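Hello,

Our lab assistant flagged a job as stuck in the queue for most of the afternoon. It eventually completed. Since we weren't sure the result was trustworthy after the delay, we are filing this so someone can double-check. Below is the sequence as submitted and the structure that was eventually returned. Let us know if re-running is recommended.
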Amino acid sequence: MTDIDGLIAGVVAREGGYVDHPADRGGPTRFGITEAVARARGYTGAIRQLPRSVAEDIYRTRYWKGPGIDRVARRAPVLAAELFDGGVNMGPRVPIGFLQRALNALNRGAADYPEVARDGRIGDATLTALDAYLVRRGRDGEAVLVKAIEALRGERYITLAERRPANEAFLYGWLAHRVGVRA
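-- returned structure --
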């Protein structure tokens, strides 16, 4: 089982304290939590003063349990860590969509399991496909699936920098600290 507390600690360490980078469309953050996300959770104070405990609760509820990554962790803990980190950085639907895309591409023309909708949600169909994939591919299957998702994340980061030059300020860090990093 994945240690969500360890994953959260890793994200907080990478994200740091208060940051207000002029090129970041998300605006000011504390521990990687944007003001909009903190407000949606009910936090009314200054983002600069966001308590770490509130940030940890947001990570646990919005990025782990809410999208169902905890359900993936029971089957594939390394994959769950990848989805969690991607969700923190891109929003949970994006890396879950990567998972669904990879599962569909790895199902050998639906011979191993049916295609899943690429809806960015972890539901029964996605979990059933994941279970079938892991049984079919065995011990190395999880690692291959994580590599596929890392490749898709890297491609997305480069595309974001190409489409919006201001994102070039973040590209090196995204690639260095978000792709292939295990908390």
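-- support follow-up --
The delay was a queue issue, not a problem with the job. The result is valid. Strands lie at 18-19, 29-30, 33-34. The radius of gyration is 17 Å.
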